[in-house]
Structure to design on (926 residues):
């Protein structure tokens, strides 16, 4: 019996093509379950047959982590994309894992609600549609606005999961305040599809601020520390605090504010005035209304907050993308070190999580040296360096330890994986420690 | 485990510990052990076989390792203020008391971090950080005495978690002793550590995955301005409608609390807080943030309360007046003792929009059963704290109160809510877990426990009614047999 025939009792299945490769590993079939039950039936057969399954939303971040050891089935979540519920008065929404973030934003905007997560994969993936909700959760996607609302892990209040053996389970619920039982939503957030298939997610929403403003500043490197220290301690409650720095240039700092009409503009003006003080940013400060400023105009001063990290379609030209973190007071040093190594960095200086990219072509040996040196610095600054993505030549030169660096609690993580997915059905080898 | 096995286990464990721990940390005297028989939920009492007043993380590791060696269960306890019996001891086990681990290692405002031992009192963190302009946001009502270790175990909330979230969002890393006695660090000082979010899973696991021995906490910048206001309404219906209207206006207050007539009566009797006379409900709203924003929001709240027919609206003009408004609310639990000899505190949650209906149904149940129920609740997030009043000396009263209490939880579940918003499941509500979660859900949660604690020694009997044995695979699930996964919702 062909694999397709074996699985099509569970759900719709088609043969895989080259476009379905997972980080260079060819897949055999693509399955598209329409429900948790179909997902359960599919996974039960896959487990029983020892088949490897990789979950895919739009595939915009499918290369994150290490290439799986093998891929028999790509499980697409696209047929589980419905909005199950948007409870307006409760500021809560439930949707299928395949729901595109862009569509969710559109559906919620009628009520002036939003899921506060920045899609860093804008323009990537299937039909350049960016991330799905499930994909965002599986990768713990978060951007500048986590300063306001917390990381995605804190916004996920309920999940429906299907384990590799077909067990359908839920955790959490649809109320924001709930401490009944283990928070499995947090456990699967950022697990890159290696513990369970997420089929449905319930999230906490926030009201869209009536007015938003951005304060932009060009800051010489030697003044980045006092500028960030000033902003981190601000009582003007910024929603975002970003830094962007390319080798050889100034650092660009962007502060986002949201709130009442009028008062937000006044706060932005106040902040700009503070930043214009001598010793801070000086006169290179501007206040803009991001909704009425073209991205080009904004980028003229500071690159767009949600700018995707790469537009290169050719696999070989993918830049090396690192997630680098540090304690807040260590961010200026991290920015400096990254720039000195030829890395472009941008991210949330107010939270301590940045992304760094190294352009292609850079010799593999240089990439590896860079990762090692930057990691030594982030470790010293209380953070970490993770290689999220890289060209195949770099990836194949890295082992799990080189990809993830030191992982506190790795032994416990192995035990968790062994409990949830003992047969290593789900994305074997993609996650920390080669799990 | 038979009686003799248990005694042998404790004896062997004591022999182990006598050599390595100082004598004064081992409490063996029965009368002294009896003082630890309950936590904040006094209805359950169990005298632990041994109490260890640990003085270092190493002590914790030694005790836990010894427990693993002799297969003796252990329960960790901080200040013992929990309201769900989470720190209820095990009769054949060790109670590990962390309240002597009180070192506040550092406060680093430039990094918005504090590093503390688990016995440090919640409010002490804010007191240490306040002079530098910061505080620790989770603020359970017991914050003057409850410990950070307990907050971590219970994922504590408090009135202000409406805006600032729960403990889980304020812990960056933990040093923990796992149930096999290993000392492991979960998380890093920066967010997003590599690997599974074991830290997120550990916080709120009620001591069933191990014992935290040090925590790196996130500090929050003190707001520029805080404004507290109080509105009196004829009934909880209007107060609830005002709550919904405030949320619908796009305002996220720092806290939003409602007390009903009976709770007001109790608070007045206890602390004469001067709430509006004859009000059927009071709504307390606290707004904080930049002065420029708070001013506008306060105006909106005032307008909304008027529109919802508030009989009175007052705003605190200084810290003393603010404290005055909060005094009634914060004393409510204790105050109920003035109007009833005994009471049960519940902690159910309902979607905010279901509040009016749930309150009406609760009123019906109360009238029906002749059991008085006072209501104090975090209205902003639908977290109810019904106080079910009874007199234990009256025949059958305890049973009736427990029955009403259970009916209230069923009501919460039926409206898509939860059996606990912040007090934890503990020993008290474990039996309600199967009403909220199906067998497959509970089995899946057990997988996490089995990864951490295959022998089931860490706080056994809490959260889950009948834990599956680790190593035994859960029943094979056939999708076709699953009752309508998308239909009949349990939560």
């Amino acid at each position: 019996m062909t694999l397709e025939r074996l699985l099509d009792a569970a759900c719709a299945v088609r043969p895989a093509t080259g476009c379905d490769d997972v980080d260079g590993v060819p897949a055999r079939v693509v399955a598209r379950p329409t429900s948790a039950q179909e997902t359960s039936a599919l996974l039960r057969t896959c487990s029983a047959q020892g088949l490897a399954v990789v979950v895919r939303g739009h595939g915009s971040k499918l290369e994150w982590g290490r290439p799986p050891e093998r891929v028999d089935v790509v499980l697409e979540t696209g047929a589980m994309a419905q909005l199950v519920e948007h409870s307006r008065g409760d500021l809560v929404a439930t949707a299928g894992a395949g729901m595109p973030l862009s569509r969710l934003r559109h559906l919620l905007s009628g009520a002036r609600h939003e899921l506060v997560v920045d899609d860093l994969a804008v323009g990537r993936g299937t039909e350049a549609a960016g991330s799905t909700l499930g994909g965002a959760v599986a990768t713990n996607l978060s951007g500048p606005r986590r300063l306001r609302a917390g990381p995605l892990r804190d916004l996920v209040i309920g999940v429906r999961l299907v384990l590799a053996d077909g067990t359908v389970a839920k955790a959490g619920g649809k109320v924001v305040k709930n401490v009944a039982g283990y928070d499995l939503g947090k456990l699967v957030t950022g697990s890159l599809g290696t513990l369970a298939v997420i089929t449905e997610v319930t999230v906490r929403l926030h009201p869209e601020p009536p007015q938003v403003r951005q304060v932009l500043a060009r800051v010489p490197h030697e003044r980045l520390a006092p500028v960030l220290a000033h902003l981190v301690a601000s009582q003007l409650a910024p929603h975002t605090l970003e830094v962007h720095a390319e080798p050889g240039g100034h650092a660009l700092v962007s502060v986002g504010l949201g709130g009442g009409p009028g008062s937000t503009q006044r706060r932005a003006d106040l902040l700009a005035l503070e930043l214009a003080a001598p010793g801070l940013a000086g006169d290179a400060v501007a206040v803009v209304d991001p909704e009425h400023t073209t991205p080009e105009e904004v980028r003229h001063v500071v690159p767009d907050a949600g700018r995707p990290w790469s537009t290169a379609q050719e696999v070989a030209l993918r830049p090396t993308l690192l997630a680098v973190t540090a304690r807040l007071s260590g961010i200026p040093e991290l920015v400096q070190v990254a720039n000195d190594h030829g890395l472009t960095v941008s991210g949330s200086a107010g939270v301590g999580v940045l992304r760094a990219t190294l352009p292609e072509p850079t010799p593999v040996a240089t990439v590896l040296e860079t990762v090692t040196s930057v990691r030594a610095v982030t470790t010293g600054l209380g953070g970490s360096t993770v290689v999220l993505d890289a060209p195949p030549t770099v990836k194949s030169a890295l082992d799990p330890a080189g990809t993830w660096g030191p992982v506190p609690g790795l032994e416990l993580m192995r035990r968790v994986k062994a409990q949830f997915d003992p047969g290593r059905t789900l994305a074997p080898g993609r996650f920390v420690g080669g799990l | 485990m038979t009686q003799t096995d248990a005694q042998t286990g404790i004896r062997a464990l004591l022999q182990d510990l006598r050599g390595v721990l100082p004598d004064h940390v081992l409490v063996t005297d029965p009368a002294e052990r009896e003082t630890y028989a309950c936590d904040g939920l006094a209805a359950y009492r169990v005298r632990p076989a041994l109490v260890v007043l640990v003085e270092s993380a190493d002590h914790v590791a030694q005790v836990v390792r010894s427990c693993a060696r002799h297969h003796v269960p252990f329960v960790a306890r901080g200040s013992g203020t929990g309201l769900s019996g989470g720190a209820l001891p095990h009769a054949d086990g060790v109670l590990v008391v962390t309240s002597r681990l009180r070192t506040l290692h550092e406060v680093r405002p430039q990094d918005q971090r504090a590093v503390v031992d688990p016995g440090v009192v919640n409010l002490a963190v804010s007191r240490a950080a306040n002079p530098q302009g910061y505080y620790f946001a989770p603020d359970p009502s017991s914050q003057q005495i409850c410990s950070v270790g307990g907050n971590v175990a219970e994922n504590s909330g408090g009135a202000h978690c409406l805006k600032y979230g729960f403990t889980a969002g304020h812990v960056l890393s933990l040093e923990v002793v796992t149930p096999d006695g290993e000392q492991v660090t979960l998380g890093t000082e920066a967010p997003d550590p590599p690997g599974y979010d074991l830290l997120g899973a550990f916080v709120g696991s009620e001591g069933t995955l191990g014992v935290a021995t040090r925590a790196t906490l996130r500090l929050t910048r003190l707001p520029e301005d805080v404004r507290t206001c109080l509105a009196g309404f004829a009934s909880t219906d209007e107060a609830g409608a005002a709550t919904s209207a405030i949320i619908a206006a796009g305002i996220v207050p720092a806290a939003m609390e409602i007390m009903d007539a009976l709770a007001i009566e109790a608070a007045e009797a206890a602390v004469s807080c001067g709430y509006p006379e004859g009000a059927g409900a009071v709504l307390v709203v606290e707004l904080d943030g930049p002065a420029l924003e708070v001013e506008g929001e306060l105006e909106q709240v005032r307008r909304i309360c008027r529109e919802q027919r508030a009989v009175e609206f007052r705003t605190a003009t200084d810290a003393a007046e603010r404290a005055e408004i909060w005094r009634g609310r914060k004393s409510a639990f204790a105050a109920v003792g003035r109007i009833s000899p005994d009471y049960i505190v519940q902690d159910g949650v309902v979607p905010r929009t279901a509040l009016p209906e749930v309150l009406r149904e609760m009123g019906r149940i109360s009238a029906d059963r002749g059991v008085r129920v006072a209501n104090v609740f975090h209205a902003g997030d639908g977290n109810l704290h019904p106080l079910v009043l009874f007199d234990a000396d009256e025949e059958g009263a305890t049973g009736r109160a427990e029955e009403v209490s259970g009916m209230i939880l069923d009501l919460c579940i039926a409206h898509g809510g939860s059996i606990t918003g912040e007090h934890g499941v503990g020993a008290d509500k474990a039996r309600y877990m199967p009403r909220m979660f199906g067998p497959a859900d509970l089995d899946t949660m057990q997988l996490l426990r089995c990864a951490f604690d295959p022998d089931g020694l860490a706080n056994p009997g809490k959260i889950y009614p009948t834990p599956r044995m680790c190593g035994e695979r859960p029943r094979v699930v056939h999708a076709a047999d699953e009752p309508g996964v998308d239909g009949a919702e349990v939560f």
Notes: Residues 68 and 430 of chain A are 5 Å apart (CA to CA).
